[in-house]
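Exercise (ungraded).
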Amino acid sequence: MAGKKPYEKNRAIWMAGDGPDSDVVVSSRVRLARNLRGMPFPQQANEEQMASVFAQIRAAVEATPSIGPTEILTLQELLPMERQLVVEEHLTSPQHVQNVENRAIVLNRDKSVSVMVNEEDHLRIQTILPGFQTDEALRLASATDDAVEETVDYAFDETLGYLCACPTNVGTGLRASVMVHLPALAMVGMVGQVLGAVSKVGVAVRGAYGEGTEAVGNMFQISNQVTMGRAEDEIVAHLKAVCGQLADSERNARKAIMSDARNQLEDRVWRSYGLLTNARIVSSDEAVRLISDVKLGSDLGIIPGLDPSFFTVLSVDIMPAHVQKFVGKELAAWERDMYRATLIRERLETRKEEQ
Amino acid sequence: MAGKKPYEKNRAIWMAGDGPDSDVVVSSRVRLARNLRGMPFPQQANEEQMASVFAQIRAAVEATPSIGPTEILTLQELLPMERQLVVEEHLTSPQHVQNVENRAIVLNRDKSVSVMVNEEDHLRIQTILPGFQTDEALRLASATDDAVEETVDYAFDETLGYLCACPTNVGTGLRASVMVHLPALAMVGMVGQVLGAVSKVGVAVRGAYGEGTEAVGNMFQISNQVTMGRAEDEIVAHLKAVCGQLADSERNARKAIMSDARNQLEDRVWRSYGLLTNARIVSSDEAVRLISDVKLGSDLGIIPGLDPSFFTVLSVDIMPAHVQKFVGKELAAWERDMYRATLIRERLETRKEEQ
């Protein structure tokens, strides 16, 4: 590990920019699952085969001028904490960093494109943009996909479409997802009903860190369920329509609360702000919940001087690996809870002074 | 009521000064129950008799030079809200202001002495001082009692002692009480055990507003149970010893928490501070609980710049009638909760700016 530079870079653009509809939509993501023809899927492949896949994909992505200069993160070369950092930034999946050999992530400069090598599939092209930009995310992913395809030969079946390790991805290999913040629907007790309704029209609802993660702080990842039998743009258009309706429902709930229970809302928002600016021990779950309240208060003009990206950045920076990066060393859980509280106070103090 | 000046005066000295042992002991109080010979107790007396009692006591108290100039609060002339103010200041009992005719309170300038006229007994001489000053409170009460006795003829029996409306007061007519703040004993889960033990040695434990009120914010009123068969100074000496032990137990609990769970304590104290400085709706019970935490933090040097009297004054000023006095009009309960939050924020803001 000696001589290796630590993983410390610019913010991903999805965190740094606001993006359209950022009052409700945090980010938009597209990922395309692809595999190389004639090569076993990663789970069945031997070391040599995986190394070959890695080399081919690396060469192909580096030859893709549309996404700009790239950087390769070889998982084996990263410290465990650094791998966790990349997961917390939503640039790869928690599953991908479980086994590290011959696994890598290729990132472009602003991290709008990340290509996971030897995840469940040989490659997964992910694009992630701030706010409600599903079309743009699909365009960027497709352009990257086309460029890679010029160099490598994808496993593709005329009838089935793109072949994938998991049958649910066969077809387009596309998963588009939108991260939405629905605090007002949650407050009025309607979030279960509304998300239940959308899950009947072919979309899946998950927590912020994907499959199997719980929704904390009213952050929900809304994604398509069907990958086969429909064109990419149809899939994305459907998801876009559903999320547009969700955003409208959320905005209506916010209006209703502001007109019927403004005092109660202000009280809740300021209490959460008071806890964030004063607590000395904060778990990541509690932090996410409090940040959710304060973000809502900011979106509704109750708390001034904070923009959507402030909350997006903070939501990532309070995650365990990021807190350890902030302190510069590994920490036990109880220490993280203390330093997390310090980090949050510093951020909010800095913002206050800037005004 | 026209032309009457509103009840708006200087702070009672028990609130304005610190007093000895003010880290644990908020105030010390003594009251002597007395009745006039040959006159029915207030509950049995007719209007004329009560008026006569009022006139005699008023004359007697006004002729008492030791307590300085006095003021008469005739309950009938006070607005209901003003009567409540006096109760919240601990200058009379909630029972006294239930019926107002021929009932009054005679106060000296710093409110260390208040004489309730036609409460359960014809007169009750109360003295209240800041901190742990039971001896001084007894001295002041006895001096007032002696001076009044020079003018009026008390109902006194050689065997029984002073005769009172309620048998439990017959004898010395003395109740001495000490208001103690026991947050650390509460935190370590020992407050029930410790108070249970002291109640076995002849002292009673009540909430801050006396009989039938619940202890909120870890404030307990400790008073003697026996009034007969013992001299006044013995009764007070016993109470003083018990409260001294309670204060030691509380201080030991504080030391234990500071050495074993300082981080958790700091977190709790600062969270309560954060809620007090940010909440928009606060009930009086919640306010008292939060103030209890912050006072503990201040006593232990965790939160700087606040002295014990700040909390004593605030604890009274957040009570319902005081909040209405602050706003200058009658308020519904939900409005009080909002203005209470405003009042608390203003006070803490002012303190912060003064530093």
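Further reading is listed at the end of the chapter. For now, observe: DSSP finds twelve helices and ten strands in chain A. The first strand of chain A starts at residue 25 and ends at 34.
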